[in-house]
Write a structure and sequence with these properties.
The complex is a heterodimer of chains A (332) and B (269). Chain A is α/β, with parallel strands linked by helices. Chain A has a single domain, classed as pyruvate-formate lyase- activating enzyme (Alpha-Beta Horseshoe). Helices cover 36% and strands 22% of the residues of chain A. In chain A, a hairpin with a 2-residue loop joins strand 16 and strand 17. Chain B is of the alpha/beta class and 269 residues long. Chain B folds into two domains: 196 residues, 3-Layer(aba) Sandwich (Rossmann fold); 67 residues, no CATH class. Chain B has a five-stranded mixed barrel. In chain B, helix 1 packs across helix 4, helix 2 runs parallel beside helix 3 and helix 7 runs parallel beside helix 9. The longest helix of chain B is centred in the C-terminal third of the chain and has 19 residues. Chain B starts with a strand and ends with a helix. The chains are: A alpha/beta (332), B alpha/beta (269). The interface between A and B is large, with 39 and 39 residues. The structure holds iron/sulfur cluster. Iron/sulfur cluster (SF4) binds next to strand 7 of chain A.
Chain lengths: 332, 269
């Protein structure tokens, strides 16, 4: 349950901030100078905060759009990411955001125009090249859509820039605002799935798999490009049968030939994130499994990982055309 | 463990009486009252005194797996009614400009309010702010030992532009006592949160017993702590866990045995 709203005094009159305040009018509002005052201090407990997070309404003043990390992307010429929001309304136990930020508060940036200007500028610097902009790196792109109106602003923006591509990554079912718009072929909505068992154990607050498959189908039917992300695949005793079941559930509803892209990767976290997250949730079996540290990344021992990926790829290839598959290459 | 920090005895009295806290005679730096999983310290007036008392008591309870804090006291206000009660959601130190954000949960039964902590008494009240002399010192100190979610400051308005309670101690106690049920509710929510964190930690005696079983290097101790914290939160009692490693002859063997157990336990997520 959201407990309160912090708002930067300077942004209070911004129309998007005003809309948010109207929507959140039942909550106490606390004025702050800069979001860092509440988002960055060390003396915060992410786990406790996640129960009653606050919403922070702020403006981002620099670093609106950043180069994507090595290995991130779907093979575009240039890859960038941006975050109109930090943190997420869901609570997936494997999520790196738990290790990334001190705070579990949901930080919403309202100055979309500054993000938009930066996106246009970057795209214009790479004329003739395919420039991808990934949203959903530091948040779920669509989960807060009714509040943020993210797609209402960014989809028309991307449509207006010929060489720009946008990936929205989500575990939500919030596709209503997209369904009201004309499909844009350069906007791909990527839905992430874990098998039913992992979902029930690890993806707290995330909508049921069947509802997400339905949201995906509705977007496809309306002519939108849709992708599938099986990332992270999590090890458990029955992961093989569970993965096969998940594929059957998805492909009984979705025509694999219509998918824009499919990717797959196993559970992994950087060492620092792993350390922080496993301290927050010491009782969590996911972190107590047999894991190894390789090049600063904590993940399954190589042999187990190879076995998992091989199995999942083999099953996946029974459904999808090879060319839509993009494995997550994080070993370098 | 919940620690109350009050500047004056008359502010602490309603809490001392309600929880039947007993005066501790071992301590002389500050007046201290103790009870079951709870203590109340009388800091004296001012932010420095509040910071010092909080640090002192935190050191006394360093073995507590987690500490929750409530600063309880009176405040001045321009327009709030006498006797109204608030859980602070913003504390500003008037001298340094430093701001702190205590974080009462969504289930808080008390309305939030901002407070300015002054170095000297003043009656120059501004709207939309309470005035006190301790909250910033309390926050500055306690945030070194606990997170903002476990740190609250509850203020009862004793003075406004029309009425002054001043140093009328029985009247101050009465103003606070009026709200003791609400204060208790707030304290119980905070204790429940604190308990959630405390149960994740290995009890001090158990850790001593464990590390006395063999010689562990620092790296091994870190690993041991991770494994034990996981396993003690599964369906295994401490006795059962000690039983599993009873026959291990070395630190390495203990860690290996716990790792195998941990891997088995976690396969089903
Ligand atoms: S939906 Fe994505 S961003 Fe949100 S908690 Fe889960 S993994 Fe993290």
């Amino acid at each position: 349950m959201v407990s309160r709203v912090y708002i930067e005094a300077e942004i209070r009159d911004h129309p998007r901030a005003q809309q948010l305040l109207k929507r959140l009018h039942k909550l106490p509002v606390i004025e702050i100078e800069h979001f860092g005052e509440v988002f960055n201090p060390r003396a915060q407990n992410f786990r406790l905060q996640k129960k009653d997070p606050a919403i922070i309404i702020a403006a981002k003043n620099q670093g609106h759009v950043l180069a994507a990390p090595e290995g991130y992307g779907l093979g575009g010429d240039r890859n960038y990411y941006f975050s109109h929001m930090l943190n997420c309304i869901y609570d997936c136990r494997y999520c790196f955001l738990q290790g990334m930020y001190q705070s579990a508060h949901q930080l919403l940036f309202v100055n979309y125009e500054d993000f938009g200007a930066q996106i246009k500028h970057i795209a214009s610097r790479h004329q003739g090249q395919q420039v991808w902009f990934y949203s959903g790196y530091d948040c779920d792109s669509l989960a807060n859509e009714p509040m943020t109106g993210f797609t209402d602003y960014f989809i028309p923006l991307i449509a207006s820039v010929d060489n720009a591509w946008l990936e929205l990554r989500t575990k939500s079912t919030q596709v209503r605002s997209m369904l009201k718009q004309q499909p844009v072929s350069r906007v791909v909505t990527a839905f992430s799935f874990s098998d039913h068992f992992s979902h029930s154990k690890l993806e707290h607050g995330v909508p049921a798999i069947a509802r997400r498959i339905d949201a995906m189908r509705r977007l496809l039917d309306a002519g939108w490009a849709v992708g599938l992300r099986f990332d992270p695949v999590v090890y458990h005793q029955h992961y093989q049968t569970a993965f096969v079941q998940l594929l059957n559930d998805i492909f009984s509803e979705i025509d694999p030939q219509k998918l824009h892209s499919v990717s797959l990767g196993s559970f992994r976290l950087t060492r620092d994130h792993f350390r922080k997250v496993s301290r927050l949730y010491p009782e969590e079996p996911l972190f107590a499994q047999n894991l190894d540290l390789n090049n600063g990344i904590v993940s399954y021992p190589l042999e187990r990982e190879r076995e998992m990926i091989e199995f999942c790829e083999t099953q996946l290839m029974k459904h999808i055309p090879q060319q839509s598959y993009h494995p997550c290459e994080w070993h370098g | 463990m919940l620690i109350w920090v009050c500047a004056l005895h008359c502010e602490a009295k309603p809490v001392i009486d309600f929880y039947r806290l007993k005066k501790s005679h071992d301590d002389n730096a500050f007046d201290l009252y103790r009870g079951d999983n709870m203590a109340c310290i009388i800091s004296g007036i001012g932010k420095l005194a509040s910071a010092a008392a909080s640090a002192w008591i935190a050191a006394r309870y360093e073995d507590a797996p987690s500490i929750a804090w409530i600063n309880l006291g009176i405040a001045g206000a321009a327009s709030c009614e006498l006797g109204s009660i608030f859980a602070l959601n913003q504390v500003t130190d008037a001298d340094t400009g430093q701001r702190y954000y205590p974080a009462p949960g969504a289930d808080s039964v008390l309305p939030g309010y901002a407070c300015l902590t002054l170095g000297q008494p003043s009656e120059d009240y501004r709207e939309n702010q309470l005035y006190d002399m301790e909250a910033s010192g309390f926050m500055h100190s306690t945030l070194r030992f606990s997170s903002a979610e476990l740190t609250q400051s509850i203020k009862i308005v004793s003075d406004n532009q029309q009425h002054k309670t001043g140093k009328d101690r029985p009247r101050i106690s009465a103003l606070i006592h009026r709200h003791i049920e609400l204060i208790d509710q707030q304290a119980n929510s905070l204790l429940a949160l604190n308990q959630e964190i405390a149960t994740l930690e290995i009890p001090a005696e158990c850790w001593q017993q464990l590390t006395a079983m063999a010689h562990f290097s620092q790296t091994q101790k870190n690993r041991l702590r991770v494994l034990w914290r996981y396993l003690m939160n599964r369906d295994l009692s401490t006795e059962q866990l000690f039983g599993k490693i009873g026959s291990c002859a070395s630190s390495k063997a203990i860690i290996e045995a716990l790792e195998q157990l941990s891997y088995r336990e976690s396969e089903g997520l």
